[in-house]
Amino acid sequence: MQELQTTVSTPSLFSDSQELLPFDGSAVLYPRFLDADFARGAFDELQSATLWEQPEMVMFGKKYAQAGLSTWFTDSGISYQYSGIVREAHPMTPLLTKIGAMCTAHTGAPFNSVLVNLYRDGQDSVGWHSDNEAVNGVEPTIASLSLGATRRFNLRHKETKEMVRVDLEDGSLLVMSGLSQQCWVHQIAKTKTPVGSRVNLTYRLVS
Ligand SMILES: O=C(O)CCC(=O)C(=O)O
Ligand SMILES: [Mn+2]
């Protein structure tokens, strides 16, 4: 079957916010959300000071280590559950709270939690999924901030299989909302291209 494709190029200016989804939800990219100095400082602090976890998922009765490290921070005390894993709730740090407030100021959406992901190199990845767990609520707004190395982010429509591809650069913000989690899956694929480490923050409002 031929795959429908939409290729998206990254615009060069902060003011060039761009809607990536053609229908069924929204994913708006703000390429220069953070200035380079702030992004560098945040990357360094998060990479070195986070107590990274590598949970094991159970698939077809076998245990697999997740291909990447992550830690769940929240003001809600709510643990996060996906793929049969329960992620312990850690209290938000001042830096995570500050960046969350910047995301709220920009989007108007409140956030009380963030899943912080570390991709050490091109072998770290996250498979196709939606952020559609019940704790996120219906039609959640999720603010995804990228720091460090650029990685390719793909979105695929669940029914039409249409693909959207975008490079998430250092300091960029991607805001997914509306039907985006209901109708689309997303991933960060592995890459053979040598890449440095990347930290990603996905801010959410859980209850
Ligand atoms: O690293 C990314 O850009 C995506 C991470 C993600 O999908 C998630 O944390 O749910
Ligand atoms: Mn996700």
Give an overview of the whole structure.
- Helices cover 15% and strands 38% of the residues.
- By secondary structure, the protein is an alpha+beta fold.
- It has one domain: Jelly Rolls (Sandwich), CATH 2.60.120.590.
- The strands form four sheets. The protein has a seven-stranded antiparallel beta sheet with strand order 2-3-14-11-16-9-6. It has a five-stranded mixed beta sheet with strand order 1-13-12-15-10.
- The termini are far apart.
- Bound molecules: 2-oxoglutaric acid and manganese (II) ion (MN).
- Manganese (II) ion (MN) binds next to loops.
- The site of 2-oxoglutaric acid has 11 residues, from strand 9, strand 15 and strand 16.
Mean pLDDT: 92
* Rg over C-alpha atoms, rounded to the nearest angstrom: 16 Å
CATH architecture: Sandwich
| Proportion in helices | 10-25%
Number of strands: 16
The low-confidence parts are none
Order of helices and strands: EEEHEEEEEHEEEEEEHEE
- Order of strands across the widest beta sheet? 2-3-14-11-16-9-6
Q: Characterize the quaternary organization of these chains.
A: single chain
